[in-house]
Amino acid sequence: MLGTGKALLASTVIWTALSGASFAGTVEGSATYRERIAVPPDATLFVELQDVSLADAPAVTLAAQRYVVSGVPAQFKLTFDDALIQDRHRYVVRASISQGQKLLFTTDTAYPVLTDGAGNSADLVLVQAQTQVQGTAMLENTQWTAAVLNGAPIETEKHPEISFAQDGAFAGTGGCNRFSGQAEISGNRIEFPDNMAATLMACPPPLDEVERQFLKALQSVTTFAVQGDALALLDATGEPVIKLVRKQ
């Protein structure tokens, strides 16, 4: 009987320990780029797993790893605490290749993983950083009119507009009130300030709702993409929240 009691006690201790333990999950995949350029011998690949559930807050990094990379495609594997993952949250993987402090390649979109039907693997395609610098210059001295907002065409008589000057300075109208400020732009990344200057004139419906959604959407923007006369402002998940056309 004593032996049986000890066995039961040992089983209870093991079960208690296991029930309180957190289990490690993994996200793995590859990173590559399309250019036929050799990877410098001292280049490193940096990969991050991020929680991007809150559109109006910075992404939260759950796991990150740096690798010495001698060629592409380069394989990666991130380990994270399973207890941090929630079914209703959104998770993405981003990566960059650097040589010392010089950024060579980076993802220009977010790759979803883990939830919303996504798996635990991702094959990343990075773009050359120099190309993104050219994209940043495309915003300077340009004017744009919003055509699509949060996935729906804008159907009001007046559309929100925004123009960019030098060094991230911008100004525009939500269709009723004017606003201006200084955006932080680096490569294809852009962040609009919370405290932009704006007039406070009352707007008639439905223009008031369009303006409210437009200004709110600007706060969720993290990256941009320019293609011809089209500009897309994207959120942390890589989804375009505002689509604009160049104002002639």
Automatic annotation (TrEMBL):
Domain of life: Bacteria
The keyword Lipoprotein is annotated on this UniProt entry: yes
InterPro entries reported in the protein's UniProt record: DUF306_Meta_HslJ (IPR005184), HslJ-like_sf (IPR038670), Lipoprotein_YbaY-like (IPR053196), Pilotin (IPR039366)
Signal peptide segment: 1-24
Coiled coil (residue ranges): none
Keywords tagged on the record: Lipoprotein, Signal
Domain DUF306, chain residue ranges per copy: 137-243
Cross-referenced Pfam families: META, YscW
Name of the protein in its database record: YbaY family lipoprotein
Lineage summary: Bacteria, Pseudomonadati, Pseudomonadota, Alphaproteobacteria, Rhodobacterales
